[in-house]
Amino acid sequence: MLIEPRPASDPALVALVTAQQRELRDADGGLDGQVFDVHPNIRFLVGLHNGLAVTCGAIQALDARTAEIKRMYVRPAFRGQGLARQLLTALEELALWHGHTEVRLETATYLPAAIGLYSSAGYARIPVYGEYVSNPYSVCFRKRLPVPA
């Protein structure tokens, strides 16, 4: 899989994020989802399989040392092939490149595959934070990144 940065306005990225939001809405029974605003400090990556955009994710700076992973998504037909793990690694490397030594993320209690991915990738569960505090379905994780020598 080729992983490359894309601007928030990229049509392939927009299609992936739209598919993700639709899938999450279906999974949570139609609960009001988060409104996704594109902030100037968000950086997207898209994973391509034979030229087709099949996965996406982003990092957003929370502060100088901490980034949040957002919008992790793999098209259903491409799941189970390790693409999410590859993208997660690329997002961690992107965070390090931008000077972050810790990454955090939020997912939902009703997404056991996501929880399993993050747990197996070395993420530790932490109390919900920020905008997620009022969401009873939120579960948050953190990982300290190894600082290159």
What does this protein structure show overall?
The protein has one domain (2-144): Aminopeptidase (3-Layer(aba) Sandwich). Helix content is 28%, strand content 33%. It has helices at residues 11-27, 83-97, 112-120; strands spanning 2-6, 42-49, 52-61, 66-74, 102-108, 124-126, 138-144. The longest helix is centred in the first third of the chain and has 17 residues, at 11-27. The chain starts with a strand and ends in a 5-residue tail after the last strand.
What topology does this entry show?
Elements (H helix, E strand, L loop, with lengths): L1 E5 L4 H17 L14 E8 L2 E10 L4 E9 L8 H15 L4 E7 L3 H9 L3 E3 L11 E7 L5
Parallel strand pairs: 4-5
Antiparallel strand pairs: 1-2, 2-3, 3-4, 5-7, 6-7
Compact description:
This protein has 149 residues and is an alpha+beta fold. The chain has helices spanning 11-27, 83-97, 112-120; strands at 2-6, 42-49, 52-61, 66-74, 102-108, 124-126, 138-144.
Under the CATH scheme, the architecture is: 3-Layer(aba) Sandwich
Largest pleated sheet: 7 strands, mixed
What level of helicity do the residues show?
25-40%
Our measurement of the CA-to-CA distance between the termini, rounded to an integer number of angstroms, reads 27 Å
> What's the helix count?
3
How many domain regions? 1
Low-confidence stretches: none
Q: What's the CATH class, please?
A: Alpha Beta
The secondary-structure element order is: EHEEEHEHEE
According to DSSP, the number of beta strands is: 7
The CATH homologous superfamily is called: Gcn5-related N-acetyltransferase (GNAT)
Radius of gyration: 15 Å
**Strand pairing plus helix content: what structural class?**
alpha+beta
